[in-house]
């Protein structure tokens, strides 16, 4: 059993080694991660330039590209055989609700699913300094369950862990994606040469407190496990749009 571990926080994120320690009893763990922070890169691929892969030690590689590049490299030539599972994370910060569409962490797990293997994205809902030991142990337990039960094709798991002492974690909830209230802004600045430049910024995310969602669970101190499907087709709209008579 070979696990491909990646992230979007970069190769020096401490969570990578914590995951390696927790997963090693289950099989070979290969880390292939970006050489720098690639947060919010979503499912982007590096297509317009070559990228380089650096081997730091046995089964520990950095890529000067995106999290998706890391998974693609792992499946198409970097390793001597294809990994059996992809674990992306543990991200330093939450990935809930609509933010999964921006997340490099979730995108890496999506790519693993596209490669045909069970895949899990994991995030810790804080940006404060953390040791990740207890979260990594939970990931190992979840991986065992996935290995025992499997995942349906084209499905992945998105996990968010609350930031609190492990003894105060309330339990685990199977959830749906929440909904974020967006308050992003475009911040305009002027550089020393008088040229305008911009930052996308804003306040911390605000979530609609709906019971059964990932945000609701994490806010209450539960670990949120959300099954995601890659088929985004709106089945109800298929029938309704047949009435549009677009050929007329």
Automatic annotation (TrEMBL):
InterPro entries: SurE (IPR030048), SurE-like_Pase/nucleotidase (IPR002828), SurE-like_sf (IPR036523). Its EC number is 3.1.3.5. Keywords: Cytoplasm, Hydrolase, Metal-binding, Nucleotide-binding. It is found in: Cytoplasm. It is an enzyme of class 3 (hydrolase). GO terms for molecular function: 3'-nucleotidase activity; 5'-nucleotidase activity; exopolyphosphatase activity; metal ion binding; nucleotide binding. Its cofactor is a divalent metal cation; Mg(2+). Binds 1 divalent metal cation per subunit. It holds the Pfam family SurE. Residues 4-183 form the Survival protein SurE-like phosphatase/nucleotidase domain. The keyword 4Fe-4S does not apply. A divalent metal cation binds at residues 8-9, 39, 91. One of its GO terms (cellular component) is cytoplasm. The keyword Cell division does not apply. It catalyses: a ribonucleoside 5'-phosphate + H2O = a ribonucleoside + phosphate. PANTHER family: 5'-NUCLEOTIDASE SURE, 5'_3'-NUCLEOTIDASE SURE. Nucleotidase that shows phosphatase activity on nucleoside 5'-monophosphates. Belongs to the SurE nucleotidase family. This is 5'-nucleotidase SurE. It comes from Eiseniibacteriota bacterium. The lineage of its organism: Bacteria, Candidatus Eiseniibacteriota. The gene is surE.
């Amino acid at each position: 059993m070979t696990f491909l571990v990646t992230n979007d926080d970069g190769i020096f994120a401490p969570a990578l080694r914590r995951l390696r320690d927790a997963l090693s009893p289950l099989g070979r763990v290969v880390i292939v991660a970006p050489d720098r922070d690639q947060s919010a890169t979503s499912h982007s691929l590096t297509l317009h330039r070559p990228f380089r892969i650096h081997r730091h030690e046995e089964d520990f590689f950095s890529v000067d590209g995106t999290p998706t590049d890391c998974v693609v490299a792992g499946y198409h030539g970097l390793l001597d055989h294809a990994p059996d599972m992809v674990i992306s994370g543990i991200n330093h910060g939450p990935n809930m609700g609509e933010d999964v569409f921006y997340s490099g962490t979730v995108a890496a797990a999506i790519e693993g699913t596209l490669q045909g293997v069970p895949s899990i994205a994991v995030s810790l809902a804080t940006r404060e300094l953390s040791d990740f030991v207890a979260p990594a142990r939970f990931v190992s337990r979840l991986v065992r369950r996935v290995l025992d039960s499997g995942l349906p094709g084209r499905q992945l798991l998105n996990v968010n862990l609350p930031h609190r002492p492990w003894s105060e974690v309330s339990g685990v909830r199977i959830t749906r994606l929440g909904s974020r209230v967006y308050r992003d802004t475009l911040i305009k600045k002027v550089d020393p040469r008088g040229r305008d430049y911009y930052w996308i910024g804003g306040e911390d995310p605000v979530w609609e407190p709906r019971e059964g969602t990932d945000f609701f669970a994490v806010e209450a101190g539960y670990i949120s496990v959300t099954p995601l499907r890659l088929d985004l087709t709106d089945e109800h709209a298929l029938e309704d749009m047949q009435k549009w008579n677009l050929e007329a």
